[in-house]
Amino acid sequence: MGKELLDLNKLKQLHSGLREPMQTWKWYLKAFPVIGGRTLPTSYCESVNLPFAQFNTIQKEVAGTTLTFAGTSSIDGFNMTVFEDASASTTGYFQDWQALVQNPRTGGYNVPKYYWKNLEVVLMNTRNEDIATSIIRNAWPISLGEVQLDQATGRVQMNIQMACTAQIFVPVRKLNIVTG
């Protein structure tokens, strides 16, 4: 009876932090990849969409019933919004990254090993504890969005469209709850 009570209390303690909603602003980019010997401060990443895989289905007729199975999977790219500084470091950084994809002088394309880079986005709870890491594999910028310039005051932001091959969601701790 005492051990069961302890296990129940431990279970309640584990669940106490699970009921709060995850906040959209409780995350950080671990690091921008090194491109041409330089990187950007992680604070320059102001927003990022986490990509998730989608399954395409195939159908098969079996004994007069249509069954649906997983066919192929795909992952759409994702968008990130980055801050531009007064030195135009962000524009230079992403243009250098795109130059790893296609040489701007010759027009020749490089193989992916030169431009595929991993990104890690860490998610936190309301107590600022890391709860999971989203590893975005083989990311690269496919489009640098337009930058709107006007006479109003405000910071310059760039919308970057990225491609990737996978996103792996890794919880910091996995709950090992045995029910029985």
Structure, described:
The chain is α+β, with helices and mostly antiparallel strands. Helices cover 16% and strands 39% of the residues. The protein has 2 helices and 9 strands; from the N terminus they run H-E-E-E-E-E-H-E-E-E-E. Strands 1, 2, 5, 6, 7, 8 and 9 form a 7-stranded antiparallel sheet that branches. A two-stranded antiparallel sheet has the order 3-4. A hairpin with a 2-residue loop joins strand 3 and strand 4. 13% of the residues are buried. The C terminus is likely disordered.
Residue stretches low in confidence (pLDDT < 50, at least 5 long) are: 175-180
User: Can you give the helix content as a percent range?
Assistant: 10-25%
> What string, H for helix and E for strand, traces the elements in order?
HEEEEEHEEEE
Which class do the helix and strand fractions yield?
Answer: alpha+beta
Q: Give me the Rg, rounded.
A: 22 Å
Number of strands: 9
| SS field, number of helical segments | 2
Descriptive keywords:
single chain; seven-stranded antiparallel beta sheet; 2 helices; 9 strands; globular; disordered C terminus
What's the topology here?
Elements: H1 2-16, E1 27-29, E2 45-48, E3 53-62, E4 65-75, E5 78-83, H2 89-101, E6 117-124, E7 130-144, E8 157-163, E9 166-171
Antiparallel strand pairs: 1-6, 2-5, 3-4, 5-8, 6-7, 7-8, 7-9
